[in-house]
Amino acid sequence: MSYVEASGLAKKYGNATIFQDIHFSLRKGEFVTLLGPSGCGKSTLLRSLAGLTDIDAGCIRVDGEDITRAAPQKRGIGMVFQSYALFPNMSVEQNIAFGLKLQKLPGSEIARKVADVIRLVALSGKEQHYPHELSGGQRQRVALARALVVEPRILLLDEPLSALDARIRKSLREQIRDIQQRLGLTTVFVTHDQEEALTMSDRIFVMDQGRIVQEGSAEMIYTRPATEFVARFMGSYNLLTPTEASRLLQLETRGHLAIRPEAIQIFTPGQAYPAHLSAPLPATIRQHQLLGNVIRYQVQAHGITLQVDQLNRRAEDLLAAGTEVNLMIDQQQMREVH
Amino acid sequence: MRAELYHRSVVAVLILLLTVPVLATLLYSLSEHWGATILPDDLSLSWYLQLWQDSAFLAAFGRSLAVCLGTLLLATLIIVPAVFVVFYRFPGLDKLMNALILIPFAVPPVVTSVGLLNIYADGPLNITGTPWILVGCYFTIALPFMYRSLANSLASINVRDLMDAAHLLGASTPVAFLRVILPNLRKGLMASLFLAFSFLLGDFVFANLLAGSHYETLQVYLYNMRQTSGHFTSAIVMSYFLFTLFLTWLTARFSK
Amino acid sequence: MKTTSLPLAGKPAVPVRPRSRLRHWPAALLLLPFFAMLILFSLAPMVWVLVNSVHTEQGLSLANYNDILSSPFYRQAFDNSLRISVWSSVIGLVISLLGAASLRRVSGRLRRLVVSITNMTSNLTGVPLAFAFIILVGTNGALTLLLRQWGLIEDFRLYSSNGVILIYTYFQIPLGVLLLYPAFDSLDDDWQAAASLLGARLWQYWRYVGLPVLAPAILGTFILLFANAIGAYASAYALTQGNFNLITVRIASLVSGDIFLEPNMAAALSVLLMLMLLLVTAVNQWLLKKGARHAR
């Protein structure tokens, strides 16, 4: 039984379609990510769920209740904005208590709930600080606490990590996921960052030009991109046109052939290779790039440049530019995409 | 959309509030006669023709232009080098200057007039009733506009680096100022001059109290014409207003 | 300005002799005319006013102040000036606030039009403004006659307290809009979105977030409008030919009237006027400081 049900959502500004034909359903407690490049309509879709933007068509149900036309105040939805949208005239405590005060809860209950959520997001000691006195990561957690404390039915996160630097982003990623799982909160997360989407989500909806082009688990999306767009967007796929595919691998395909860089293995001449793989493909190393534990080689075969990832084991194993090698490609990891 | 309609209505009311007095004066100046009707009858330019042939009006207008332009010229000659010196040699003074130039802004002209009338009515500087005392006062009115604008222009370029570069290329300090710094100030200076001009033209207090009928400016002339036909005075008001409009337009053009 | 420079890497540091300020004396000469004008026409009159306000024929005394404070006529002038300044500032502020808030929500073309109109009409002050209003709503003004004919009003007395407030309000609006409009840019639209998701109605957003954030700008604008009104002279003078009792009208008539001149009395009135301005500014500063922690 799905908790959130969206069907046929569509939105236009003048002649420009922002999104259309959006259908999805979320289970209770699920963490779903809307992933796509900027301008694909994911943020507007999120604001539509919150009721901040009107939709032209479609229906949104939460827990069986139709909220398509409900005011934002009545939806029971919490949201964390990209800019955090903390009220600058209120302290951390006042920001968090704002929603509870509007519900006219008794003071003692407000104090208890605020204290609980401040502990949950690890902001103890910052209660009396004002937003401009906090770091980006702390502001982020205040925004999260403010959205959580009113116990929303759904939590929406609009690129909440994009303004932070890499190290804080990683630790906040874990914190958000941890809190979400502890509270069992149905969550929709918007990002343009594949890595964020892959590490946090139960399910990913990939969006392109106002449509959801693929949905599935992180593993699914990563290893089995449904379209050329998804393959490109998930990063570093080698994409071969049908002519390249037939030239290189003698394979007849109608769409592009997507091959992940780690699905290709490099064998130096004389090195023994397992016979069950495809025939060896002669190639030349062009250059390499060090990505920490992985070395990414640019390798040329039949005039086609491929990216190949190898584990960075020993410095002596590094292959110099110009080295002649053989490539083996795992056929099972090739995917035809359209 | 309800919200959109509301915002448009508010803005429409605002426009109406601001423009109705102007439009009414314009219509009045263009009509021979206006009784209790929505629109006047007999539109004509006769009041303007009469006004622009009135020697008293032309003389007053001329006096206003003379004293305002004279002040602006003097102010440019004094303020431009002063601001440059502050920025180039005594940057620490900028704070003090910003406070000083606000004094004429903060003190009501009536109050300043009390002191001026008594200091310059006799003694070594007996200039009350002459245009010179107006030039002095108008200098202080123009000062905040011109100083701020020039200071903003100078803050946006790196004065010290530009001067050092010019010096290394063999320019003396005055040449470097004239050829390198001054061209960067031109636009901001022009905008502030036109803005100050329209402010100076609008002065009635100093003109009336310090010079009065000895040196009748446009504003004083307008006041003295209060007993004549309303159509005639509205032609004066509109002529004045259109002239300041022209100055506002020039200000906007140069502030771009 | 720091005059020491960092030594270049690899070279021994040579101590740099600090340059003397005296080196710049020719430059300082260029400041001389500037300060001379400022002193002659701005500072000297101020000092004269301050000194002579405590000067009477009997020498140094506060008699002038005593006379003013015990005179019903002068007290009325203060009363009128205060009432008219406060009302015209408050009404002008409210109209400007509503206008500036809506201005952000209309199309760019309309917005630019309004900004030019406010710029233009901010030139309409003083004598021309008074005359424009006499033409429109004076005893025989076009609008007065029209409204009277339609039976909407019996009479509008422009040459009264209400008339002066009307005219003052008119010149406050363009100033208020021009001062407040930029302040609205500091409001983030997401705040309203966030507030509504937390259950706030529109008025609650303005009550708890929008207006508190704008408060410093609103207060500052109020002070400028108030100072603008209380120091104004020309419009009220032109409207009533000096018959409406305001502080500025009193001051001017004490130094330029035809009958008797009492410059020291004018000086004392001037000092009281400026004290009022100072008081209002001080209250403003105090209020700002009270709410300053978040203001940045």
UniProtKB/TrEMBL annotation, chain A:
Residues 4-234 form the ABC transporter domain. One of its GO terms (cellular component) is ATP-binding cassette (ABC) transporter complex. PROSITE patterns: ABC_TRANSPORTER_1, ABC_TRANSPORTER_2. GO terms for biological process: quaternary ammonium group transport. GO terms for molecular function: ATP binding; ATP hydrolysis activity; transmembrane transporter activity. Keywords: ATP-binding, Cell membrane, Membrane, Nucleotide-binding, Transport. Pfam families: ABC_tran (PF00005), TOBE_2 (PF08402). This is ABC transporter related protein.
From TrEMBL, chain B:
It is found in: Cell inner membrane; Cell membrane. Residues 61-251 form the ABC transmembrane type-1 domain. One of its GO terms (cellular component) is plasma membrane. PROSITE patterns: ABC_TM1 (PS50928). The chain crosses the membrane at residues 55-88, 100-120, 132-150, 188-211, 232-252. SUPFAM superfamilies: MetI-like (SSF161098). It is a multi-pass membrane protein. Keywords: Cell inner membrane, Cell membrane, Membrane, Transmembrane, Transmembrane helix, Transport. One of its GO terms (biological process) is transmembrane transport. Belongs to the binding-protein-dependent transport system permease family. This is Binding-protein-dependent transport systems inner membrane component.
UniProtKB/TrEMBL annotation, chain C:
Keywords: Cell membrane, Membrane, Transmembrane, Transmembrane helix, Transport. It is found in: Cell membrane. It is a multi-pass membrane protein. One of its GO terms (cellular component) is plasma membrane. Its main location: membrane. GO terms for biological process: transmembrane transport. InterPro entries: MetI-like (IPR000515), MetI-like_sf (IPR035906). The chain crosses the membrane at residues 27-51, 84-103, 124-145, 165-184, 205-227, 265-288. Residues 78-284 form the ABC transmembrane type-1 domain. PROSITE patterns: ABC_TM1 (PS50928). It holds the Pfam family BPD_transp_1. The keyword Transferase does not apply. Belongs to the binding-protein-dependent transport system permease family. CysTW subfamily. This is Binding-protein-dependent transport systems inner membrane component.
